[in-house]
Design brief:
This protein has a single domain, classed as Rossmann fold (3-Layer(aba) Sandwich), CATH 3.40.50.300. The protein has 9 helices and 12 strands. The strands form 3 sheets. The protein has a 6-stranded mixed β-sheet, with helices on both faces. The two termini are 36 Å apart. Mean pLDDT is 92; it is low at 260-265. The chain has helices at 42-50, 72-78, 94-99, 114-126, 142-155, 172-187, 199-205, 223-226, 229-236; strands spanning 2-13, 16-27, 31-35, 57-62, 65-66, 79-82, 160-164, 191-195, 208-213, 216-221, 238-245, 248-257. The chain is globular.
Length: 265
């Protein structure tokens, strides 16, 4: 079943469209990696899909209904959006931040109940931060803070995750843990859209790749369809080698800068 669909989507900042005429859809259990050079519009696309940034053209539908017609509380129960970074102005603990993920399920006067506390504890454990509940987020590393934001999204029990560069501050061990979390969620029918820069991580977690360039979709398909040296040459300006591996997808190795223009940086 299609969870989220965009048709002719356009939007940006300050009167200029960064994303132009994008058609995009994600269904239950899908994992889509959005890739592209710097300035391609990846984060803007995610903000438009999440409803954080209003579109200037096209439409986004959530479960077949225009996103603009949904209450934000109801959207937040279905879609968990995790931005690249969040600054914490107040000294909140890990548990207090993750508790914010239950807000869409609480009325204005209802305090958190046993189920809310259980969801918070499960989300913290799922990202590997059990035992750190009382730690102030300001004392955590950048990667650990990113995991707290993921746990906050998981606490809302979403059916779709929109993750903007979730692995940027993570070490290799935590990147593998992130891949395992996504795989487990997919088995439960949760969809995911991840903006990534690491192509090899994208191949590990996603069954579909979307490549943006200058706000347009340059490629959209399975890894087998998208992994073409000419695409890397035209989009990123690099020459690559695909190194076969017996136990998984090929390893992408950049060999040299290409001669084609790679788009805006």
């Amino acid at each position: 079943m299609t969870l989220l669909e965009a048709r002719g989507l356009a939007g940006g900042y300050g009167g200029a469209d960064v994303v132009r005429g994008v058609d995009f859809a994600v269904s239950d259990g899908d994992c889509v990696a959005v890739l592209g050079p710097n300035g391609a519009g990846k984060s803007t696309l995610l903000r438009l899909l999440a409803g954080v940034l209003p579109p200037r053209g096209g439409v986004v539908e959530l479960r077949g209904r225009p996103l603009a017609g949904w209450r934000r509380r109801d959207v937040a129960r279905i879609v968990g959006y995790v931005p690249q970074a969040v600054s914490f102005a107040f000294p909140l603990t890990v548990s207090e931040v993750v508790q914010q993920g239950r807000a869409p399920h609480l009325g204005p006067w209802r305090p958190p109940g046993p189920r809310d506390h259980a969801c918070v504890a499960a989300a913290i454990a799922r990202v590997g931060l059990a035992g750190r509940e009382a730690t102030a987020v300001q004392r955590l590393s950048g990667g650990e803070r990113q995991l707290v934001l993921l746990a906050r999204a998981l606490a809302s029990e979403p059916r779709l995750l929109l993750l903007d560069e979730p692995a940027t501050a993570l070490d290799v061990r935590h990147q593998l843990a992130l891949a395992a979390i996504i795989a487990a969620l997919r088995r439960d029918g949760v969809g995911a859209v991840l903006v990534l820069h690491d192509w090899n991580l994208a191949l590990r977690v996603a069954d579909r790749l979307v490549v943006l360039r200058d706000g347009h979709i340059r490629a959209d398909g399975t890894p087998a369809d998208v992994l073409r040296p000419e695409l890397f040459r035209e989009t990123f300006g690099v020459e690559i080698e695909l190194v076969p591996r017996p136990d998984g997808p090929p390893l992408i190795v950049a060999r040299s800068a290409g001669t084609a223009e790679a788009g805006r940086s």
